[in-house]
Amino acid sequence: MEHATNRAIGIHSTPEIWQVGQVVSLCEPIATNPAGCVGLVYQLDMDDPQTPYVAIILETGDDLNLFEAAHVHDSFVALIWEPISYEFSTPAALMADFNRGLFTEHFAKGHRISCGDKNG
């Protein structure tokens, strides 16, 4: 799989979402996650450039692994892009990184922006 870390794909007129490090907020509830829940794009899957997939970890610890990128713009609002050099390896490693707080600063910045602080 091609790793597209920090590279915009540029579809659906919202290319900022298609980058590793993009902080997003849910527009509508997904499963047990309420609207406004903050997430972080941690991986892009570009095996088929016509149907890219994006992986998002939510602040609740839910992993939206391989969410079809064409639907991300319907369900999420882009808040800010934060440089992150994260390489996904396994779901267990992702959860370990989540549990040790690797993404906490990004989630907090997303909340500050969604509350009106445009500088995060």
Task: Characterise the protein shown here.
By secondary structure, the protein is of the alpha+beta class. The protein has a single domain, classed as SH3 type barrels, CATH 2.30.30.30. It is built from 3 helices and 5 strands, in the order E-E-E-E-H-E-H-H. The chain has helices spanning 69-75, 91-99, 104-114, and strands at residues 22-26, 38-45, 53-58, 63-68, 76-81. It has a 5-stranded antiparallel beta sheet. A hairpin with a 7-residue loop joins strand 2 and strand 3. The longest helix has 11 residues, at 104-114. The chain is globular.
What features would you highlight for this structure?
120 residues, 22% helix, 5-stranded antiparallel β-sheet, SH3 type barrels, globular, single chain, 26% strand, alpha+beta
How much of the polypeptide forms β-strand, as a percent range? 25-35%
* Ends distance: 32 Å
The level-1 CATH class: Mainly Beta
Shape: globular
Please give the CATH architecture. Roll
Widest sheet, order of strands: 4-3-2-1-5
- Count of discrete structural domains: 1
Q: Could you give a short account of the major beta sheet?
A: 5 strands, antiparallel
Rg (CA only): 13 Å
Structural class by secondary-structure content: alpha+beta
The level of helicity is 10-25%
Mean pLDDT, nearest integer?
80
Count of runs of 4 or more consecutive helical residues? 3
The CATH topology label is: SH3 type barrels
Element order: H for helix, E for strand: EEEEHEHH
Stretches where pLDDT falls below 50 for ≥5 residues?
A: 1-16
How many individual β-strands?
5
